[in-house]
Structure prediction request, 831 residues.
Amino acid sequence: MNHDVLEKTVLRPSTPAARSASAEVAVPPQIAKTPQRPGIRPDKPVRIAIVHDWLVTYAGAERVLEQIIACFPDADLFSLVDFLDDRTFVRGKPVTTSFIQKLPFARTKYRAWLPLMPLAIEQLDVSDYDVVISSSHAVAKGVLTGPDQVHISYVHSPIRYAWDLQHQYLKQSNLISGPRSALARMILHYIRNWDIRTSNSVDAFVANSAFIARRIKKVYQRDAQVIFPPVDVDAFSLNEQKEDFYLTASRMVPYKKIDLIVEAFAKMPQRRLVVIGDGPDMQKVRAKATPNVEIMGYQPFAVLHDRMRRAKAFVFAAEEDFGISVVEAQACGTPVIAYGKGGALETVRDLYEPRPTGMFFDEQSTDSIIAAVDDFDANSTRFSAADCRANAEQFSARHFRERFFEHVQQNVPALRSATLPACDAGAPVKLDGSPPSAQSAQAAASMRVLAIDQSGVLGGAELSLLEIVKTLRARIQVVLFDDGPFRVALGHAGVNADVLDSGALRHVRKQGGKLPKGQALKGLASLVRATAARARNADVIYANTQRAMVIGAVAGRLTRKPVVWHLRDIVSAEHFGRKQLAIIKWCAKFGLAHVIANSAASVRAFADLTNFDSKRIDVVFNGISDAPFEALRDVSQSVLRARLGLPEDAFLVGSFSRLARWKGQHVLLEAMLLNPKMHAVLVGAPLFGEDEYEAELQAFVATHDIGDRVHFLGFQHDIAACMCAVDVVAHSSITPEPFGRVIVEGMLAQRPVVAARAGGVIEIIEDGVDGLLCEPGDAFALAHTLTRLQSHASLRDRLVTAGYRTALQRFGTDNYVSGVERILKKVAGKA
Prediction:
């Protein structure tokens, strides 16, 4: 809708003279302008219809509906069916329903009439209304509207079971094969086609989270304004006195994964779990419960509120579009342990953020939940009930009403003089629609960067990119090939990342693995096209990781944009498979304009492989912020050890990396056998199918009976706290390391560092000055060096002082960011 034309029509009706003047200019039919929607007459009240999918209960979507009605109390209400017993939240309004209302078993089996729902919604007559607001998680957005009507659709989700969750839905419904399966697939195919077609009749989409906005973009190819759904924060009261039990509360349906949470706690008999809710999966959940798990079933609000206020933490395992219960728990001052996908990423502040309100686990598995609960216990003192409550306040119903009402006003000029109903008024929340400052505009005009990264997790490469983003936020657009905490961190840095589907790349590993074939190649092509579309407005493509580089090289060639790869690996047969090395070599010739390497060791391996022009390669050492370490200066080591469950008086040697054979944790364990007065602390988890190596380490510890001296902490968010808790940081990689971020972090933690003499490590440490070096894989040399450090406090102090100075002077974030920015500007300027 052209709002300027609409406003002119409303405010300045055409005069006879104007009509005469316009008639003198003939517009050829082939270039005639598209007729504009006539304005809503300002002298008449604006007629509004609200369309909801179905009214059978009071759940998340109905809470949104309740607040939409509060914004427009005179609107008329439409729905496929209306079987409400309590009509309080719809203010007793009559509801116009469809023919499904009178079909057999409609009250209890209304979902079974899904094939008829598209037809039914189209029979609801809203032609007499000026504005139509649909509240849709199924078919409500498909209501028929005319060219003179404004249709605004608040989308809780595109139809999940017709789109990305189709296969899960068919499996759970036992419709994998056979005639019924074929029929179900045909119906869902028909609904998908109908769903896309009807999206064209919506003038403005509103999504309940950035997660759903991305779904809308993927399915409908439309942008959506994000307005978080309302949470009745005022109904939940803050309680700072927590008791020793965990809580989960939800309707028991498969995707909520309540059974998974119960199964995890069944393996932790020392911890108590309370489960509130009912639904189809109740029997499955009860079957998995153990004595430490209390299944309470459905409970009234008062009971839910009481348990939520008193719980130690709220556990949430679903990939939810938003997750109202997560916010409700925080409103009670209760931190959250949540699956790190979907809307939870937007409502929970993780440990790496200031004033955290919870933490995430990475997989929907019992082991991942158990590890997260262990991690939570170790860090429980870092969560504040007041911080949780403050975070929840931003999702209040008042904020929703103000933002949604303002959004409707922006799309309906005739309502711009209207005010929110007096009973719901509050301090207005200003939307961020103001023009950028002159400085930002000038910066944006100087260089536009498209940064691409394959990961959603916060690894070393992602933390390094985050520093770049903080400086170039006015000039950078970020594209990720996976969702996760990294996207949330980027959002807090002021950059909203686009997340593209990376299904074609998920099984491609450095060491080999199957390359994309068949359907996966189509997905790969789609990924390239989506990246290329975003690159057209950029001056340079900045690929932060290896798989991102492959996509970027092709996209850059298609769009004639220069591609800069930030090389963070040693591209040799020790780290990469033969096929992956061939792809890197091809990309270097085909689509790379420049390479930034994190060490000279990385440069040498890349040059040997590709014969790339040395004038187009620069070394920029990673920059690492000292802020997380400075924040712990006044925290004693004993407090940190108690938080992590480590012995207070032992001499602790810490290893900080994912559990992988080439990282050499087994070398450190072998060194422990040679010095019975030391303890090893292993911080990290296996990734990329390396679980067998973790099992080998555990077996080694058990075989040699050193379990009391080896502490497996798993994945930890707060690396700074873990490093400050140990006495020495050990780097034991048995193959050359591209850089060695943990070495610099150890220096910033003011701990002496012992590292393997290979790769980029020797560019960081000057042996005997700011650290000590050992031969890679030599457990005897490592044990000897560690014993030397344990025996000589003066040596430790001297290495700590010099190491801290080295970390600040050579590996600070300012030098790193300015170096990368200089190269990007140079490459963009040449282009």
User: Anything to note?
Assistant: The chain has five domains: 1-25+33-39, 48-226, 233-393, 440-623+815-830, 636-811. Residues 402 and 427 are 8 Å apart (CA to CA). The domain at 48-226 is CATH 3.40.50 (Rossmann fold).
